[in-house]
Amino acid sequence: MIIRPITDTDLDTLYKIASESGPGFTSLMPDREALAQKIAHSMASFERSVTRPADEHYLFVLEDEITGDILGTTGIEANAGHTRPLYHFRRNTVTHHSRDLNLRRSVETLTRCNHYTGYSEICSLYLRPEFRRANAGKLLSRVRFLFMAQHPERFSDKVIAEMRGVSDSSGQSPFWNWLKTHFVDMEFDQATQLIGTGYTDFIDELMPSHPLYTCLMSPEARAVLSQVHKDTRAALRILEAEGFQHNGFIDLFDGGPTVECGLADIRSVRLSSACTVRIDETNAEAGNDFAQKNKPALITNTGTTNFRAVVTSEVSARQDTLIVPPALAGKLRLDNDSHARILPLNQAAPAHTGNTA
Fold it and tell me: Annotated catalytic sites, by residue?
């Protein structure tokens, strides 16, 4: 298995993934034209020379090198809110107090905001159920962090992830059903389809801009505030282990939590390191950290358009030198004295087997 940037030849499989992922997975919607544009935008983003983040979007695929199957996707939005508003509800507590009557009542509100504009966003992580296997989730989960660590000029110093909120098997969201009843007469899948294709004008036109009192919401809607879809629980645990935290911002449509972390504070960023490559047939350096103990590591090259990443236990490390067998060096497009980044997975958080928004 190998991670690489998406190309236009992956459109058919990306459409399948968008269809499989179901309602609420707004970063990939089953619209061929929109997906083709997303692929073209990603390819252009990898090709750009960047000194500060703008509207770049990086989309990667996980490929089985033997069969050619695409096992999953993962992505990064360099500058959220750059081309269209990024809206959330912020959970606040408001206290009403009458000194004369000696009465006090605290109530929770949801207030629409653009708090995360300018943050980088990890997104589009989906591992196809029939391809879930050892190390597949590890690659998809952490490769973004190593790419960001290697190219920090392309990203914000703060990173978010919008987690998929609660919906049932038919795609019904309790949170959206309450909003639909009172504000927006539109089905959940129609709303997410509009968002997924980049249309956000209806948010300003139809959705409430004034604070909403959660005590007036249905019990079903209140119960899912800041909760994640059952298929996203593993993803949330992974990000929490990486250092991400939920600070009260939720999705406008399904109430799912957004989590955040400083780029430099992400566990995989802190524990990864840059190495100089030495290609060696024997791969038998004394004092190495990985090969003798047969422990896997995530290895990436330092490219953009030719970016590659794998999980392997075939390498060994000694100080700042990474000893790589020739076949693996070929897969990763590494030469002698080129550079790579390594993350020992025994020191990282657990593997991910689900999906995020």
Answer: 229
